[in-house]
UniProtKB/TrEMBL annotation:
GO biological process terms held by the UniProt record: lipid oxidation
Protein's name in the database: Lipoxygenase
Domain of life, source organism: Bacteria
Pfam families the UniProt entry points to: Lipoxygenase
Domain Lipoxygenase: 1-559
Keywords assigned: Metal-binding, Oxidoreductase
InterPro entries recorded: LipOase (IPR000907), LipOase_C (IPR013819), LipOase_C_sf (IPR036226)
Lineage: Bacteria, Bacillati, Cyanobacteriota, Cyanophyceae, Oscillatoriophycideae
Sample GO molecular function, one term: oxidoreductase activity, acting on single donors with incorporation of molecular oxygen, incorporation of two atoms of oxygen
PROSITE patterns to which the protein is assigned, alphabetical: LIPOXYGENASE_3 (PS51393)
Keyword Metal-binding: yes
Length: 559
């Protein structure tokens, strides 16, 4: 196979390329109606299916163990609430329990999940109190007490927010035995630097569970009665879990990358260097996404059953994440890792020295960027070569076209290699590290149910006493998922976290061009250096951050 830009092929070969692509466009068609404005594939061609190896490895790795575990767990009654929080620990008889289990109730663990948990892209640095919060600084200080001077902390840029108020539209779906609920809280945090005698840590300051109700909704702090504070943190975790699955995971990785796989198959001939570079990063994605649409986000499916909203509402969270929230709609350039982190104000290493997702993610981002640069420069030695590459220009044109991929944040005509490097780096980073970071954390965080229930099973409480517990343990247990739902949540998140098909930078077949293979080998060496660097960092972290170790990152969104 001769790797070539189309304009460098002989006229006969150019004709062959064009005819082949025309045929391929009838195999890979767009479906714009599934969940507008997202674009998905109409029918998945057979060659996109999981391979025999994938199936042979993945199924035993998950189903066997899960079946044995389900048999071993003695579920007394499927629908009655459990008696106490420790009972949630009994669900892991034949599978290892999620790593968050021993510490989930602590404030440290709650705060750390904003920085290295399953959903590390919500936290934002504050310059002023968020308008969604009902209370002002005086209210906050009065509720929090004197442990911190909040006005000073705000002025110094040490306050952060996790804001889930955009989820307030969700009324809640149903399960076999009744109704489910979704809180839409706001949580404030403070970075306490080394001046407080620690190595620096993020601490929670306050939570308002239902800011859309105004002062009907109390302000809770770590100094609130213990059960009230635990309830408030659980509300944040429920909102975060729903946001994680529908926005961060499904929308910002699985669905936004789908048009790139479709258009690459439609516009780039298999010997096009960009097709050769990208195709391993799309492996199994179209098939896997279609499977998710048929079996996870279908009527009566897992999302419908386990997440808080109705199926329609959960899908609206996907759409909202992509499009309707003016500040946050997805675009390729805004979600480039360095930009995305900067837009949330979390790029300042001095202000926030501890942010594993950012620190490990940037190592991978930079390595991918160098790899992509070195690779593309083998084929594009001038801007003209790029501009004359009519397959590439058709690729960019269709990706951005309103009847094609509708991708925002990239040009419809690519003029410079730098533009192309930026696009390709974002795509490979999203398919690889970004998806792995939010996929393989599912079991360790959302797999332990009281840490991150996917739904509430009682109406959300808003009013709390400042001096005594406003709910009993029994009421808390009724609020959390009943055993049958617990089992369902464990099973799906275990299944989605248990199998890795491949690893970043290692492909099933070598590049046909030996020069490209040299570039790839250099990338692999760099990944090994990063591996050691992250291992060293993890020795100094209270909670090791494992998912961005290159050996645990996949090439593609294959699970
Ligand atoms: Mn996934």
């Amino acid at each position: 196979m001769e790797v070539n830009l189309p304009q460098k092929d002989s006229p006969e070969d150019q004709e062959k390329r064009t005819a082949w692509l025309e045929r391929n466009r009838t195999r890979y068609e767009f479906n714009p109606d599934y969940l507008p404005p997202l674009t998905v594939i109409k029918d998945v061609p057979d060659n996109e299916s999981f391979s025999a190896r994938y199936l042979a490895e993945r199924l035993p790795a998950t189903l066997g163990k899960l079946a044995a575990n389900t048999l071993a767990v003695n579920v007394r009654s499927l629908w009655d609430p459990l008696d106490e929080l420790q009972d949630f620990e009994d669900f892991y008889q034949k599978i290892s329990p999620p790593s968050v289990m021993p510490t989930y109730q602590t404030d440290e663990c709650f705060a750390e999940q904003r920085l290295s948990g399953a959903n590390p892209i919500v936290l934002q640095r504050l310059q002023s109190l968020p308008p969604t919060l009902t209370y002002n600084l005086t209210d906050l200080q009065a509720a929090y007490g004197s442990a911190l001077n909040l006005e000073k902390e705000l002025k110094e840029g040490n306050l952060y927010v996790a804001d889930y108020t955009q989820l307030a539209f969700v009324q809640g779906g149903t399960y076999l035995k009744g109704k489910k609920y979704l809180p839409a809280p706001i949580a404030l945090f403070c970075w306490r630097g080394t001046g407080y005698g620690t190595r620096g840590e993020l601490v929670p300051i306050a939570i308002q569970i239902a800011p859309h109700l105004g002062k009907e909704s109390s302000l809770l702090t770590p100094f609130s009665p213990a059960m009230n504070w635990l309830y408030a943190k659980t509300c944040v975790q429920i909102a975060d879990a729903n946001h994680h699955e529908m926005a961060t995971h499904l929308c910002y990785t699985h669905f936004v990358m789908e048009p790139f796989a479709i258009v690459t198959a439609r516009q780039l001939f298999p010997t096009h260097p960009l097709s050769i570079l990208l195709t391993p990063h799309f492996r199994f994605m179209l098939y896997n996404n279609e499977l998710a649409r048929e079996r996870l986000v279908n009527q009566g499916g897992i999302v419908d059953d386990l997440l808080a909203g109705t199926l329609r509402e959960s899908l609206q969270i996907v759409q909202q994440a992509y499009f309707t929230n003016a500040q946050n709609y997805w675009s390729l350039d805004k979600f480039a890792l360095p930009t995305e982190i900067k837009n949330r104000g979390l790029d300042d290493q001095e202000a926030l020295p501890h942010y594993p997702y950012r620190d490990d993610g940037l190592l991978l981002w930079e390595a991918i960027e160098r790899y992509v640069t070195n690779y593309l420069k083998l084929y594009y030695t001038s801007a003209e070569e790029l501009q004359e590459d009519y397959e590439l220009q058709a690729w960019a044109g269709e990706l951005t076209d309103q009847s094609g991929g509708k991708v925002k944040g990239m040009p419809s005509k690519i003029n410079t290699t730098e533009e192309l490097i930026a696009i390709v780096t974002s795509v490979i980073f999203t398919c690889g590290p970004q998806h792995s970071a939010v996929n393989f954390t599912q079991y360790d965080y959302l797999g332990f149910i009281p840490n991150a229930p996917l739904a509430a099973y009682q109406p959300i409480k808003n009013q709390f006493s400042h001096s005594e517990n406003s709910l009993t343990l029994q009421e808390l247990m009724a609020f959390l998922p009943p055993p049958n739902q617990v089992m369902g949540q464990i099973q799906i998140l275990y299944a989605l976290s248990a199998y890795r098909y491949d690893r970043l930078g290692y492909y099933d077949t070598p590049f046909p061009d030996r020069r490209a293979q040299v570039v790839l080998t250099r990338f692999q060496q760099e990944l090994q250096t990063i591996e050691r660097k992250i291992e060293l960092r993890n020795k100094n972290r209270v909670t090791p951050y494992k998912v961005l170790r290159p050996s645990l990152v996949l090439n593609s969104i294959s699970i």
